[in-house]
């Protein structure tokens, strides 16, 4: 009884281990460091893989199937194994090897040998008579009959080919031409370099070493990463440099602007659009009016096009003639994207439209201003006259020429207020008649 229980436990444990092995995750093991070879030699790219070979009846994979006596386990098989150059899923017409009978690229025919056999999970590849053009990133990819799951993207392994055993060679992956924001890998090797060799990277636009490693991964590259790179290998007291590896980081149009000439009033105007892009903009598309709205579908509007000409490092420009006022916009585009800039041409006569509230307020404001000026001038004139009338000299003149005047005041019509508030004297008073 005890022996039977132990045997059953061992069988359950063995079944669980087997099911866990069958339900493995997707994986490809290749060297993390670049593989170095000499022109004319043979090189092996070591490789092994694994994949989910089964799932339970619920369709779950990546873990052990459900432990249900009545459960069904579905087995998955390999349909195709392949090697390609520089594509993370091997969606390319340029195969290095394909197990489904697809012929390799002509440059590899008769030079490759695949070591994989059914059930071995060995995916190693041998390349004979290595050429300089064989340098690059090699990717292994697997296709199974699973209805939904696919192998994830693969980074691959870099192969660097040197002209001689003592030469230093460098390579960029996935390519020396990369789009802004992507990841760039720089690799350096020499067939003669030992395990104790030191690697140092220099950039032509910088001062001093930039990275001390055989492989330099640059994430989210920018235009500042463009330029030349040199790898130096230090073996003991000897140092040897590679040739210059030129990196070109491409980006969509930016700093797009429109200049208007002449600066004065009057049609027509010349509109010049300029932009910084890599690769450069070849043609500028021009629109006007509603087509310049951010929400507008420019494909449904007619466009004028102007050929771009060089206008400095990385910049181009194109010009058109504008014979209408309103909004005008230009679209700068290359294979990585586009950028739009808008300018408004406004007629001098349209700055204050006739009949607007602003135009009606102008004459009203002028009239009110003139009226206030007249009132102020009249007040000033009357005040000056009254001050003159009631000055001490004027009273002295009255007493001199009218000795009978006793200094009393008479209030008659057309009087002036006394600034001192002590008396009022009429302008037509007999006392004022001299």
TrEMBL record:
Keywords: Membrane, Signal, Transmembrane, Transmembrane helix. It comes from Tetraodon nigroviridis (Spotted green pufferfish). Residues 1-23 form the signal peptide. Residues 152-246, 253-346 form the Ig-like domain. The chain crosses the membrane at residues 361-390. PROSITE patterns: IG_LIKE. This is (spotted green pufferfish) hypothetical protein. InterPro entries: Ig-like_dom, Ig-like_dom_sf, Ig-like_fold, Ig_sub, Ig_V-set. Coiled coil: none annotated.
